Amino acid sequence: MKCLWKTMHNLLCSQSRLLPEELIWMRMPPEPSSQNPGMQIAVFRHGISGILLHNTIYDVVPLSSKLAILDAQLPVKQAFKIMHDEGLALVPLWDDHQGTVTGMLTASDFVLMLRKLQRNIRALGNEELEMHPISAWKEAKLQFYGGPDGAAIQRRPLIHVKDSDNLVDVALTIIRNEISSVPIFKSLPDSSGMPLLNLATLQGILKFLCSKLQEQAEGYSLLHNQLVNIPIGTWSPHTGRTSNRQLRTLRLSSPLNSCLDLLLQDRVSSIPIVDDNGSLRDVYSLSDIMALAKNDVYARIELEQVTVQNALDVQYQVQGRRQCHTCLQTSTLLEVLEELSIPGVRRVVVIEQSTRFVEGIISLRDIFTFLLG
After folding, report:
1. Which residues form the signal peptide (predicted)?
2. Range of the domain at 336
């Protein structure tokens, strides 16, 4: 078993514990139009909690889907090639000895592997990657990228949720652990079956949430408020807005290594790329690094000499030009929620309309941090 593909059919519908719709909405307090912004936010969050607390992951995961799982003994080189070919930024790892999923292979692993190769830290040659298994790489990573005192990082248990968990708990698990998705395990595993059902994402939860809010959009005036009036997202200092994170942007001429440093250090998934005037040109995401796995491009370049423009050119050659998802400070909260519920969209960049100057960024994590605040 080197690469497993699992198709799920009708596994999820029988155990949904959704309360009757009318009961959920009856519990939501009325929202007079005269409420101040603080009260609007409080009422809106109360309504969101009512939906998420009374629905489980079964109400979010598709009834039928394909899930890729890689054997932990698969060679690293082959694993990253599969991830690139299938458009995957992360994939669960199956351990035959333990008979379960024990970890995740991510785009971050690919970045760290490239650095290990190119910095000559007991580097593996490209040929050795043909045989070096994922499990060995995972163990080596704990040694290579240990703590400041040189001690190895201890392997932590696999973060996961159960199929009976409510959507608030699932969303908080993803946010607090700063991950993009989390494996869903069966509540009552059996010895003969695979415990993994699927992966839960913030986007899947938001799509479900938007379908509910559209039915009651007129009852929540906050949905029609402009972003400029809502404390959400990461903002440039010139806007006068404060945020927990510092807004990072990079130029097309910036070294790719600098971009990767910021992505890993700040634990963010993307950075807006701007021209010399600060106008948005593209967004470089951590998952974009997987383009270097095609035809072993990574083996023919030096990361220190590659610019963001070079990396984007490789990405365009592999997948073509792409759309940057943007909004304005005058966009409404509902518009942003709907944009982020589109499959594949994980953040929107806030720009000034005429110049495309980058003013801020709103990610799925920002959305749920605000909704569950």
Report:
1. none
2. 223-371
